[in-house]
User: Which sequence fits this backbone?
């Protein structure tokens, strides 16, 4: 690599690191100021608070990774333009495409870091972050505990109208068992409760209909203690569970949930596709940032930053809107994840052509 490459690459990575070191402590301070009352009230051990803040840091950094990079590239490239360094580079015979090369090398480094974060570190941090929030801050898990309908294996389908995670109690429970495509028996109860110490389910107003060739067999009991093949998590699926799984675990989890007919499959696939779309957005936002800030403007760095912040806000808007569509409707998760990258990829090509002129 030549002097120009090292000069820009060092500025690229150093400014990005400084941007993270500036914004992450601010995010931690604001978050801690909001939660400190409950932390002190619950006498949370100091070690657990430090682990929570570390998890929050990784979670927060991964979530806003491309935006930190985007603003940092605009910042130092605008400084290069204001000092007429870019003019000097291009006047010496360096093409704009050649000038862009160290930015792309930096993008590769940051994208690899983003992949490591997304596949391995961020899931563990998300799990620790959410578990701490449930244990000490909110008092209840963020679960999908209403109208739970799920195929738990090839033969059994369960349904519960609602489930209270504090008491491990559900209302209007139903289990349907099938053999060779035909229902062989159906269990229903007005109330189901799980006893963790005994790993037993207690059913109130138990009713079982076993379907025979000629006559059905009925079993009615006021209380029935039994064991089922499904886990408690099947009745109370955590809404953030996909964020806490590493990539291999997430792929297997999605395959299992698809077979079970989970209504939250769109949300799970969204988390899977985001692990690969985020590194691509690093390159797209890098190109946009360079194209926007490589020219010296009358308003100086402030104009470039203002324009960059507007683009960043629009990117976040598109990402959140389409993410919500995919998780709450039948909108394709794959399209939801990649649509912002496609739109901003086209914008990057347009701005880059204008910048070369």
Assistant:
């Amino acid at each position: 690599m030549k002097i120009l490459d090292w000069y820009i690459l060092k500025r690229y990575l150093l400014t990005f690191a400084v941007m993270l070191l500036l914004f992450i402590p601010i995010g931690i301070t604001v978050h801690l100021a909001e939660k400190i009352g409950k932390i002190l009230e619950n006498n949370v051990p100091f070690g657990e608070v430090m682990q929570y803040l570390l998890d929050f840091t990784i979670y927060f950094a991964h979530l806003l990774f491309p935006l930190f990079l985007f603003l940092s590239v605009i910042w130092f490239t605008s400084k290069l333009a204001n000092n007429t360094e870019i003019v000097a580079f291009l006047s010496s015979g360096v093409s704009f495409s050649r000038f862009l090369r160290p930015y792309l090398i930096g993008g590769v480094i940051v994208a690899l870091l983003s992949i490591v974060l997304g596949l391995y570190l961020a899931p563990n941090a998300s799990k620790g972050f959410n578990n701490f929030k449930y244990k000490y801050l909110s008092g209840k898990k963020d679960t999908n505990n209403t109208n739970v309908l799920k195929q738990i294996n090839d033969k059994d389908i369960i349904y519960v109208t609602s489930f209270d995670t504090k008491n491990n109690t559900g209302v209007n429970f139903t289990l349907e068992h099938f053999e060779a495509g035909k229902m062989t028996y159906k269990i229903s109860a007005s109330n189901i409760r799980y006893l963790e110490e005994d790993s037993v389910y207690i059913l109130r107003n138990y009713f079982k209909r076993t379907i025979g060739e000629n006559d059905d067999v009925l079993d009615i009991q006021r209380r029935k203690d039994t064991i089922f093949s499904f886990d408690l998590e099947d009745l109370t699926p955590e809404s953030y569970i996909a964020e806490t799984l590493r990539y291999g675990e997430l792929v297997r989890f999605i395959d299992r949930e698809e077979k079970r007919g989970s209504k939250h499959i769109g949300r799970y696939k969204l988390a899977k596709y985001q692990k690969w779309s985020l590194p691509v957005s690093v390159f797209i936002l890098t190109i946009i940032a360079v194209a926007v800030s490589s020219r010296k403007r009358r308003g100086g760095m402030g104009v470039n930053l203002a324009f960059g912040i507007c683009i960043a806000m629009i990117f976040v808007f598109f990402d959140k809107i389409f993410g919500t569509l995919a998780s709450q409707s039948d909108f394709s998760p794959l399209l939801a994840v990649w649509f912002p990258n496609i739109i901003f990829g086209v914008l990057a090509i347009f701005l880059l052509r204008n910048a070369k002129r």
